[in-house]
Backbone:
């Protein structure tokens, strides 16, 4: 459905749309007179809402395309049609105040997850409740919007403790009489938590990221309560459930400073509780709200998240990605800061491009080849394929020697003995990603083969320049037996002679790499094939291995090293960094740099 | 006790938020301090229609230096309350007797014990609490509020009540945390047992 256009609206909903649309400028102005957002997408039917992904609530946002989506039919059914300004201003608040963008939304969820042990899957819901509190408090107090009225209209019937906490918090924040939003109760813990929540909302109104973990720690006991878990009201308010759809946040693989340490119950924060806490007592049991010395000095900064944690955050953002797609993005993000100079071969002399006039540009040729200036000079009325021209280039001998990248032939072991890179960090996979991305950056082509047992393999379609295809192979997992695909190595290099580019062979494995030296299906010796491949590749070969002892303890590996293979053992981050550094220094033959 | 409608709450909380630094200065206690609280209170009550302070009041507001530890906080709260009560709304109504009662009330002493004057001014909840306590002490309630609303809000933000319920929340969280840790320990133990069996 295009923004603001809904051709088949029933007359009553069309009138409602006009009424809501009239409030849109005022809703934008609540945040700033400079706020600009495209008109909301209106849904009149269940099908419209389904198409927009608006399945539970009557309104929602998407951060990637800055969309506000409103289901007018549901809004009318829920009796909130009179609160157009309040609801629209609230949704705009998600775009301009909290969380404002996808990355900050991810950062909130990451912080909240630390405070929800066993209930991490509810991080999205808690994040939504927290952002709503911040936005609503601002709208009610600073702009006198009738947020109380919205909740009075929406909230009838719920009785679980999470609901009581949430509504009592609003009563305190907005000086409402006890019982105006939720039936009055006698529960000191609940009252205390509501007081703390109200103080937290005010205290962290500006630095709301820092309050997220505390809010979640406060919510945890209520989320463990079975009645609250089944509360349907909360799912009906999930206007950020699909907020991440279509986008992708960056910088999430690393744990931020203070992210973990901030997940403490506000009752232990003297600033919020207002109690004269014994600082020694809090310090001793590790619950003090003041960040520890390590946190102040960076805390957990620099630690990386595991791929499954990374994936859970993305899913909580509303991103619909498979574990494999998440793993591809995870290893790519972790590899990119560590790319190395991939070996290249020097050719005797480069050639410089020499312009040699113009030729007709025909439809089917790349659009960027069109020389628009000369095309317009030929005819001011451009007719593609008729008046369009492109520059023709010749070559003249240049001054500098040309560099030709080595191709990369990558073999990734994913037998049962290897860790699944989609679940926990695999430093071997990371090493492979660094090498493959470095190679692609220099213009090399990469052939990637994922292998496990006999005839159990996946590979790219030869040497390719498709980064995603290579990373998909690299992060795949078969988890079967162990049998190196000798036939692929053989077929790749048997007939690979100049002028074909030289290639580097990179094998990622554990001690199962020695199956490479067994006989192939034709009875040929694996040793002979390995030697032939290394010779014909002309770019050297490397084994990156996950071993628990030195490779010199394995006779076959010693023999491989004598043949000319480079061997690296990588079990942790330090070994990975050392490998990357040494790999970039390696020279493959006299004519390479 | 029934209360009459008083000034707007926001007017008074704003007045408190804009307290001049002189009213937050150290009260004179023996040779130390800068502000003579007795003089400030005498001026205030005179503005509100009273005669001179009684000797007992003067003694209370001029404690010797040795009682500084117990009286300093209260004197600072009295200074802050004096600034609040100097609002023209009170002066117009000549509420000196009620104001005198509030300044020497146990409620103001209790509030002073819970927070120092700068916090009573800077913290929004404490500010509101002081204003509401003051109005209640004068037999008033904020304009546009019913008695029930005023009492409910005062109970909600009352320091004593807040500390009691937050202590309860902290105790409950402490119990829940211990249970969670025990469950996590049991789960880890079961996982380890299962692993060693296999």
Residues:
């Amino acid at each position: 459905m295009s923004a603001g256009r809904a051709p088949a609206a029933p007359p009553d909903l069309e009138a409602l749309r006009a009424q809501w649309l009239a409030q849109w400028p005022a809703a934008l102005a609540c945040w700033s007179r400079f706020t600009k957002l495209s008109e909301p997408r209106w849904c009149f039917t269940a099908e419209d809402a389904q198409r927009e992904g608006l399945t539970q609530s009557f309104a929602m946002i998407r951060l990637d395309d800055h969309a506000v989506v409103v289901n007018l039919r549901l809004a009318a059914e829920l009796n909130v049609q009179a609160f157009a300004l309040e609801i629209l201003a609230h949704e705009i608040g998600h775009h301009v105040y909290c969380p404002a963008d996808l990355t900050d939304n991810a950062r909130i969820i990451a912080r909240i997850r630390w405070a929800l042990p066993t209930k991490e899957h509810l991080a999205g819901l808690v994040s939504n409740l927290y952002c709503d509190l911040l936005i609503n408090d601002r709208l009610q107090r600073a702009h006198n919007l009738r947020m109380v009225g919205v909740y009075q209209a929406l909230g009838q019937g719920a009785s679980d403790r999470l609901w009581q906490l949430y509504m009592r918090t609003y009563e305190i924040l907005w000086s409402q009489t006890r019982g105006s939003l939720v039936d009055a109760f006698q529960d000191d813990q609940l009252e205390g938590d509501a007081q703390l929540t109200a103080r937290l909302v005010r205290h962290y109104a500006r630095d709301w990221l820092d309050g997220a973990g505390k809010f979640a720690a406060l919510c945890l006991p209520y989320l463990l309560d079975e009645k609250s878990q089944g509360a349907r009201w909360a799912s009906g308010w999930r206007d950020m459930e699909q907020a991440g759809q279509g986008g992708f946040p960056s910088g999430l693989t690393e744990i931020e400073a203070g992210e973990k340490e901030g997940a403490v119950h506000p009752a232990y924060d003297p600033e919020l509780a207002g109690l004269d806490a014994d600082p020694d007592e809090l310090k001793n049991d590790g619950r003090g709200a003041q960040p520890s010395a390590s946190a102040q000095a960076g805390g957990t900064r620099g630690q990386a998240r595991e791929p499954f944690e990374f994936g859970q955050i993305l899913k909580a953002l509303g991103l619909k990605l498979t574990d494999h797609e998440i793993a591809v993005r995870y290893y790519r993000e972790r590899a990119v800061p560590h790319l190395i100079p991939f070996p290249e071969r020097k050719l005797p002399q480069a050639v410089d491009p020499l312009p040699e006039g113009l030729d007709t540009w025909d439809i089917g040729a790349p659009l960027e080849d069109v020389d628009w200036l000369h095309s317009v000079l030929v005819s001011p009325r451009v007719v593609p394929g008729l008046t369009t021209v492109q520059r023709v280039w010749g070559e003249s001998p240049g001054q500098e020697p040309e560099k030709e990248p080595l191709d990369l032939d990558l073999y990734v072991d994913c037998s049962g003995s290897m860790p699944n890179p989609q679940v926990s960090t695999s430093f071997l996979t990371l090493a492979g990603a660094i090498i493959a991305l470095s190679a692609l950056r220099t213009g090399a082509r990469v052939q990637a083969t994922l292998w496990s047992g006999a005839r159990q393999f996946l590979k790219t379609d030869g040497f390719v320049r498709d980064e995603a295809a290579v990373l998909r192979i690299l992060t795949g997992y078969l988890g079967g037996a162990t049998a190196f695909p000798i036939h692929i190595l053989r077929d790749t290099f048997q007939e690979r002679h100049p002028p074909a580019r030289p290639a580097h062979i990179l094998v990622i494995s554990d001690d199962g790499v020695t199956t490479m030296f067994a006989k192939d299906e034709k009875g040929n010796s694996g040793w002979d094939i390995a030697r032939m491949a290394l010779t014909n590749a002309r770019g050297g070969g490397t084994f990156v291995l996950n071993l628990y002892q030195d490779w010199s303890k394995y006779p076959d590996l010693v023999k491989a090293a004598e043949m000319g293979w480079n061997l690296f053992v990588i079990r942790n981050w330090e070994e990975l960094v050392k490998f990357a550094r040494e790999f970039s220094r390696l020279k493959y033959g006299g004519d390479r740099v | 006790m029934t209360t009459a409608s008083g000034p707007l709450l926001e007017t008074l909380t704003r007045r408190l938020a804009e307290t001049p630094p002189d009213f937050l200065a150290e009260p004179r206690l023996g040779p130390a301090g800068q502000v003579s609280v007795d003089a400030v209170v005498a001026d205030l009550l005179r503005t509100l229609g009273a005669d001179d302070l009684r000797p007992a009041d003067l003694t209370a507001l001029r404690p010797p230096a040795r009682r500084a530890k117990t009286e300093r906080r209260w004197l600072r709260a009295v200074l802050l309350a004096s600034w609040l009560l100097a609002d023209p709304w009170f002066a117009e109504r000549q509420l000196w007797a009620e104001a005198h009662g509030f300044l020497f009330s146990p409620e103001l002493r209790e509030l002073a014990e819970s927070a120092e004057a700068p916090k009573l001014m800077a913290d929004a909840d404490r500010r509101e609490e002081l204003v509401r306590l003051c109005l209640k002490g004068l037999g008033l309630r904020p304009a546009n509020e019913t008695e029930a609303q005023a009492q409910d809000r005062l109970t909600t933000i009352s320091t004593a009540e807040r500390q009691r319920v937050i202590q309860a929340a902290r105790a409950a969280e402490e119990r829940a945390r211990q249970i969670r840790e025990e469950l996590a320990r049991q789960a880890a133990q079961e996982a380890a047992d299962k692993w060693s069996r296999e």
